[in-house]
Structures are given as C-alpha cells and as structure tokens.
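**Fold in tokens:**
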Amino acid sequence: MSHTLPPTLPPQAAPPAPRTGPALLGIALGYFMVLLDTTVLSVAEPDLARSLGSSTVGLQWVVTGYTVAFGALLLSAGAVGDRYGAHRVFRAGVAAFGAGSLLSVCAPGLWTLVGLRAVLGVAAAACVPSSMAMITRLYPEPARRARAVAVWAAVSGAALAAGPIAGGLLVALAGWRAVFVVNVPLAVVVLALVAGPSVRCPRGERRIDWGGQLAACAALALTTDALIAFGAHAAVHGAWSAAGAVAAGALFARRERRSASPVLVPAVLRAPGMAPMLAAGAAVGFALTAVLFVLPLFLQATRGYGTVAAGAAFLPLTLPTAVNPLLVTGRLVARLGPDRPVRAGLALLVAAGGVMAGAAGAGAPYPVLAVGLCAAGCGVSLALPALTTAVITLAPPGSAGAAGGLLNAVRQLGATLGVAVLGAFVAVHPSARGAACGLLLPAPACALAVVLSLVLRAARSRRAGA
C-alpha cells in the first residue's frame, strides 16, 4: 500500500504587530491636555478678574474648583477604570473635558465658570489613571513599556512649559475665554487617535466605595472653602465650613474603617518609607502652585507686564521641567535611587522660594527673579519623577496603581491648599509685600518634608540594625 504525503503548505507569515504609535500619541496628548489646563489659566487671572468682576476669592475658586475635584477623585479613578474598562473611562473623560471646555468659553459669570472647572477636574481624574492602564495594555513587554512611560511622563514637562506662554498669547489675542478653546480640537484629536481596538482594556470586578469617595470630596472642598473664607476675613462662613469639613472627614474615616474596598488602600499607606514621599509630593504641589498663582498677579499688577511678557517670564521655570526628567533625573535615579534626588529637589525649592521672595519684596530686576524660577524648575523636575519611581517601588505587589493615584491626589491636595492659603496673602497685601510672603511660604513646607524624610530614614536604619 502506498502512502501519499500531504502537499507541503507555504509557511504563513506572522501577523503584523499592531501599530501602537498613534494610540500612545493620543494617550500622551490626553495627558498633555489635562496638565495644560492646570497652568494655561495662570496668566489669564487678571483679565478674567476684570471681565467677570472677580475678587481674589473668586480667582481662588476658579483654580481650586478644578484641583479639588481632580485631587479627590484621583483616589478612586483607578478603581473606576479597572471596573468598567480603562479605555472607556479615558474616552469618556476626554469627551467630557472637551465639552466642559467648550461650555467654559461661554460661561456667563464667575460661579458658572467655577462649576464648569469642577466638571473639568472630574474629567481630568478619569483620564490620568486610565492612561497608565492603557499603556500597560499596549506595551506588555517591560522594556518597551518603560520607554512608552518615559514618553508619557515627558509630556507633563512639555505641558508645564507650554501653559504660561500659550495662555499669554491666547489672552492677548482674544481674552481669557480663548484659553479654553484650545482644549476642544485637542480632545477631538485624542479621541480619533485612541479609537482603535489596540487600546481596549477588559472590565474587572473591583468594587468602588462611592459613599467614601463623596465624603473625601466634601471634606477637601469644605476645607478649601474654610481657608479661603478665613483669608477673606469671613470668620462666620469659615467656621461653618470648617465644622462641615470636620464632619465630612469623620464620616470618611468611619467609612474607611468599615469598607471592604476603602478609598485609601491600607497596605499602601503602611508601606515603609511611603509617608515621607507623600508628604514631599504635597510640598512640591504647594510650591509649584505658589509660583503659578502668585507670580502672574504680581508681574502684571505690580511690574506692569502684559500677558505675553508674563507668560514668557516663566520660561526659566518651565524649560527645566521639559528637559530634565529624561536627560538628568532618570539617570540620577538609576544611579543613586530616588531618595536623594527627591531631597535635592526639595532643597532647591526652599532656595528658590527665598530668592523669588527676596526679589519680589526688594523690587529686584527680573534676572534675579529668573534665578529663583530656574531653581524652582530644576527642583520640580528633580523631585517629581523621583517621587513617582519611589512610590511605585515602595508600594506592595499589586498596588502600584493605587500608590500612583494616591501620589497624584496628595500633589493636587497640596496645590489646592496652596491656592487657598496663598490667596489670603495676596488679598491682604495686594502688592510686592504680599507676593513676597506668598512666594516664601512654601519654603518651610519643603524644608519640613526634607527633615521628615531624613528622620524616618534614620529611624528605619536603627530598626534594621537592631
């Protein structure tokens, strides 16, 4: 009996690897859009105040309406992405950001704008943790993922660099409303780039404590309102808000103790070395906000700068944040670990506060102020990438996402409280003296974070040697 061999089939080519570049560009542009909105409004503050008849208190709420919602909801935004699919949450956040920006252009009054800024903060919180989950899905190989995350992270520096300059140009051309127009085409481009199937993420079963999240938002918002009210000498208003903040904080703590899915993951909070890193994140947020909120008012009201000149004046601050993370900080963290770059960044922020406050108070020429701005930019670009590495490294296995969300939340908390506290100095002393006090105030917070880091590190070393 003869056996006939089957015909030899031509080898099949391996399926082509999916194109991930456009999707990564879309994710990075979404992050750029969110971060741009935290800085682009800074130089528009005086024009906004004139247009809507706003006081310093109103300007504080325009800024903090965004950061309160953004910071508080970052605590649970990662869980929402895990539950419903990160790509769905990201796309919904981008679409809401574009729509909210378009409505902000048409805002008829101050408090309508504050409410819309809160909507933008909610949308921003939906975008940031989901973008990291999408990158993980796109780049499962560690080496490619590391390069993708580096690109994604570098965008934050570009957004910080572009914000004040873009804001100054837009305000000079068409007033403060123009700073919101730019988000609309950006949102459309982002949605087009992430529309493909390569970024789809599966749904999960993670539970979300919505009641605890609402209590956290209420506590942060009421605390902010109390600080703003006390700064404006509205003692009764401030007392009621402070009492409400205490009540909301107590409710949040009670729910956290009883919740099967707490907003704050206990294992992350108890991780050795985590507390000083979170404190450092809050201090950096405080310091950066001091510059972005106080300095535009000072330069335009006291020094007579126009919006374009005020935006350009921030270049010594913003350029290091666009360049240093990839060229300097990454290499330092790889060689030395994250602790020393974090402390060096905080020390630079302390020195920068002193230089800028001295320059503002003494009426020194701009080059002196530029030295302080450059030191602040170098400090931020040293501290923030190193903090991200430290927090993710210290987090227990399986909780890196929760740790990253917590770091971003405390940064926004520091920024929110910074605007609330620093606005009081500007309102009481709307002059060079008020600007000097506002620029100097974050220096003790950064110094305290350095001391806390050193003390806790020494305590850990003693326990390890015992």
About this structure: The mean pLDDT is 79.
